[in-house]
Design brief:
The chain has five helices and two strands; from the N terminus they run ααββααα. The protein is mostly helical. It comes from Streptomyces dengpaensis.
Length: about 130
């Protein structure tokens, strides 16, 4: 004699599983944008402003399709100077601004992603 098994909540569980890929994409994109914005802000706070417009040349780009974020200087007029400030030269001490900004915000990425994923899955902001 065959026994019937009742699976309460199976439909809800399957709907939640179907939402996972989109929630992951949304959480990733939100995290990338927040991280890039934070890194850019920290780099702008650190970069020397005594001469030049390097701080204005700092920018970030997020490619949500490939899941990549970049923060840096892409203006050809400022690019070489940006490297000299970050790394120094034989006649100029280094004044790192970009690498410390990356390092400052590196550890917050997993926490930010987890919180965003929970929100996008409907689990609140904890």
């Amino acid at each position: 004699m065959a026994r019937r098994i009742r699976l309460d909540g199976l439909r809800g569980a399957l709907r939640a599983i179907e939402r996972v890929p989109e929630a992951m994409r949304e959480a990733r994109n939100e995290t990338l944008n927040e991280w890039a914005d934070n890194v850019q802000g920290s780099a702008e706070d650190r970069v020397p402003r005594d001469k030049g417009n390097l701080w204005q040349a700092l920018d970030h780009r997020v490619n949500e399709h490939f899941g990549r974020a970049e923060v840096g200087v892409w203006d050809p007029a400022e690019l070489e100077y940006a490297m000299y400030v970050e790394k120094g030269t034989s006649s100029m001490d280094d004044q790192p601004y970009l690498v410390p900004a990356f390092n400052e915000h590196r550890r917050e990425v997993p926490r930010t992603y987890r919180a965003a994923f929970r929100r996008h899955m409907g689990g609140g902001a904890s």
